[in-house]
Amino acid sequence: MEMESIRDTYSLGLKPQPKSVTATAEWRRLKVHARHIAKMHLRDVLGVASRCEALSAEFEGSFLDYSRMQVTQRTMDLLYALARRQRLREKIAAMCRGDKVNVTEGRAVLHTALRSAPDDAPIVVDGVNVVEDVHEVLRKVKAFSEAVRSGEQRGATGRLLRNIVAVGIGGSYLGPEFVHEAFSTEQQHAVDQDLNDFYRLRFLSNVDPVDVRRTLYDLDPQETIVIVISKTFTTAETMLNARTARQWLWDAMGKDPSVVARHMAACASSSAAARVQNFGIPPEHLFEFWDWVGGRYSVCSSVGALPLSLKYGYGMFDRFLAGARAVDIHFQHAPLDRNLPVLMGLLGVWNMSFMGYKTRTILPYAEALLKLPAHIQQLAMESNGKRVTVTGEVVDYDIGPVDFGEPGTNGQHSFFQLLHMGQVCPAEFIGFIESQHHLHVEGEVVASHDELMANFFAQPDALALGNTREQLVAEGCPPELIPHRTFAGNRPSLSLLMPKVNAYYLGQILALYEHRTAVEGFMWNINSFDQWGVELGKKLASDVRSRMHKFRSGKGTLSGGLNPSTHGLLKRYVIRDRDAFKHC
Ligand SMILES: O=P(O)(O)OC[C@H]1O[C@](O)(CO)[C@@H](O)[C@@H]1O
Question: 194 vs 217, which has greater pLDDT?
């Protein structure tokens, strides 16, 4: 696409923006303001009730408290001004109505359409109403999952299909795994519990043979359905694992086309349909999604729908979609200062680009959200880890923090030392008012969930307030330990307190983070929807793969064009120098 047309598409027909956002008056004002804020200590402002009330927002019982961010109302007003300057609202609207905001790939970005209602107004992409397409695939998922769960659809030898193996990587794995981990803790739909327990869902992601073994070793192929999840249906690791699984099925039941036809299904982009069929998977087992769904934004498509509906029933997935849809509507219509994903995105921009914090940690105080940090890691880092703006200028400001995390309280006993005393890393605490399980051991002062949540409430204050020399002296701390036990505090965090972990609120969490990521990208003027940075490694791996193959089949040498370091390492690996093993 020509640069001018990219600029036109992205500036949404409005007058062109300055080359760099840093040249705008709004950005410069924030830069100056950040110098004042750097002198403010959270200890001095956290006691002001009106500030705490102002720096909070609520949506359907999910309460966002950002009073522990290093911001004032003026900071927020300056961020809203920058948002207006960056035409944030217009960009959100453009994304949701199907404009091709992924300009480098010429694609719309419509994960919001995946949770549309069947009677929603049409969203037209290249002349097609995608709302209809979405619901046609969802109906197909529902019918197929019900047929499997009722026993109507069986394996090639007539056995019930009770094992679901989802083969995929990156966005074709992390989102569904996060939701699966969380769904597996839900008790609300206990009527289905026995049935749900009967089905086993496993993910085969890594091409490491150990992952293959770990996933398949105790499953009966006759009772297994393998779902190959790959948007492109070309990803090397996924396709090798898919062929491995197919061979495993053939080894058990014979190399008959009916084996693949009955035991394999695919979730892939409609443009990969021919590849799916060539693999042996019939069209009725292709659950398609579309080029306008990015891999890391695909959980709500068949990518999540199929494995999760097979395991938990379609109804649970539908409630998940409803939660995400509620946040989509809020995102598109709530004013900036009441809009949860917008607020989270603006605070992300503030911390990274103005306060200079290059990392961020996500801390769910819920074991159900065990895999949320890994999903957010891909979502945020693949989206916003970029070097140029949408129009190709090198970004000359800080963008795209490093995201990591772990559920609390486990994280407290591993990396929280650094959060409290090492470099400053803004934290996002997520907690729930109600647990899925009530557990109060007789004689204990509090129930287990209260104990968990006591930490959820305490940690943000420890980070913000710290512990001063004076407090330590008053506590009788030995003088030589005072420097070691002093906490500077003034470490920013936000707290998201939600009613309960269930499919509906999980959908909300997913959409909150998807939109937070988009808001940051829109503000930074980058394309959050492509991922060219992963291509070079794939190309080089393909070169190494073909060298290994040629060398092992006596048709070529390893060297030639390789640098001495890679050549040396590869030679050591391929030739398996006995000396290297003598210590084993
Ligand atoms: O769904 P696919 O096409 O197999 O891709 C898997 C993942 O690989 C990536 O392309 C990165 O290599 C991700 O963006 C994507 O989620």
Answer: 217
What ipTM did this prediction achieve?
0.98
Q: What does each C-alpha distance from 159 to 191, 202, 248, 284 come to in angstroms?
A: 24, 19, 17, 20
Q: In what order do the strands lie in the sheet with 163-167?
A: 200-204, 163-167, 224-229, 264-269, 286-289
189 noted as active-site residue:
no
Reported confidence tier of residue 14, pLDDT bands at 50, 70, 90: very low
**Ligand 1 atom closest to the CA of 298, numbered from 1:** 16
How sure is the predictor about 13, in pLDDT bands with cuts at 50, 70 and 90?
very low
SS3 assignment, position 269: strand
CA distance 103 to 115: 23
Q: Is the pLDDT of residue 191 over 60?
A: no
Beta partners for residue 201, in sequence order: 164
Using the 8-state DSSP alphabet, how is residue 351 labeled?
A: I
**Interval 463-469 mean pLDDT:** 96
**Residue 581 clears pLDDT 60, i.e. is over it:** yes
Q: Which numbered atom of ligand 1 lies nearest the CA of 171? A: 16
Q: Out of 413, 440, 484, 549, which one is annotated catalytic?
A: 413
pLDDT tens for residues 231-254?
999 999 999 999 999 999 999 999
The model's confidence at residue 561, banded by pLDDT at 50, 70 and 90, is confident
Interatomic CA distance for residues 147 and 129, integer angstroms = 28
Written as one string, the DSSP assignment of 206-240 is: --SHHHHHHHHTT--GGGEEEEEE-SSS--HHHHH
Which residue of 298, 376, 534 sits with most ligand 1 atoms within 8 Å of its CB, as the best mutation to test the pocket?
534
Q: Which protein residue has the closest C-alpha to ligand 1 atom 16?
A: 171
Amino acid identity of 407?
A: P
Strand 124-125 with 128-129, pairing: antiparallel
Residue 119 burial (C-beta neighbours within 10 Å; 0-12, 13-18, 19+): exposed
Residue 165's H or E segment, with its range, is: strand 163-167
Rounded to the nearest integer, the mean pLDDT of the chain is: 94
pTM of the complete model? 0.95
Q: Which residues of 136-156 are buried (b: 16+ CB within 10 A; e: fewer)?
A: ebbebbbebbeebbeeebebb
> In the prediction, which pLDDT does 556 show?
85
**Which atom of ligand 1 is closest in space to residue 538's alpha carbon?**
12
Q: How far is the CA of 44 from the centre of ligand 1 (A)?
A: 46
Domain annotation for the chain: domains and CATH numbers: 1-99+339-528 (3.40.50.10490), 124-320 (3.40.50.10490), 536-582 (no CATH)
- What is the C-alpha separation between 521 and 72, in angstroms, rounded? 23
Judge whether 377 and 403 are in contact, CB under 8 Å: yes
- How far, in Å, is the centroid of ligand 1 from the Cα of 76? 36
Token readout for 477 is 């701390």
Q: Which two tokens stand for residue 470?
A: 């004076």
Cα Rg for the chain, rounded, in angstroms?
26
Instruction: Kindly indicate the confidence band of residue 454, based on its pLDDT and cuts at 50, 70 and 90.
Output: very high
